[in-house]
Amino acid sequence: MTDATGGALDASTVSGAAVEPGPPSLADDVVFRPVRSGNAFEDTVARLLQAVRLGIVEPGGALPAERDLAVRFSVSRDTVRDAIRSLADAGYLVARRGRYGGTFVSERLPAEGGGEPQTAVPTATEIDDVLGLREILEVGAARAAAGRSLSAADRDTLWQRLAETSAASADDYRRLDSRLHLTIGQLVGTPTLVSLMADNRTRVNGLLDHIPLLPLNIAHSNEQHATIVAAILRGGQDDAAAAMSEHLEGSAVLLRGFLA
Fold first, then answer.
1. pTM over 0.85
2. Tell me, which fold does domain 11-105 have in CATH?
3. Which of 11, 114, 222, 249 is the most buried (most CB within 10 A)?
């Protein structure tokens, strides 16, 4: 069984017993933090849905216990319970009973946009806003990650995320691609950066939902991912930033070509 980051989940964690906190996970940095608006239910649903759609919690992976989520989100357990029930009804989460029960991400996720109203095609100004912020956040993240002294675990995680994305099917590609990019942000060691990247990536994926997923573009993206990761791992800050900039420009060209 796995936890919210795909790691081993023991019985004491599932049953809600106290455990020693480990280092912050990608889920901790991005999702499991206090909601900030007055719309507690809607924010909780959105945060949990973001965790699923961006690949932060994998299909089959477990969410923390309801009471833990309530503490992390700074909302009531009723709010958490209602949010989980709503996402379970929509097919994103599954509740299991018993000693090793809990709330898990569905093994088969609904299609992107399934059951949701189609949004209007974004304007050129909206596209420029999303992609401009992405350039600032992600090029900076690649440069900063390459400038850090990475642990063996960090390096292994980055290689694993690259391998998963390279081997992903078309159905899983966007989710695993998102997680690879967020992992690069996490290596910087600034949780707020990862949170900003996740919010921006959600908007980017909303744009990408309007255009086809092209096999040749996937192959090219995978090559660029490998170049970015290699530069980060060897500490090439300028190379990592340049490779990320080129990678993002490819996506921007496609989005503007289809949507502008």
1. no
2. Arc Repressor Mutant, subunit A (1.10.10)
3. 222
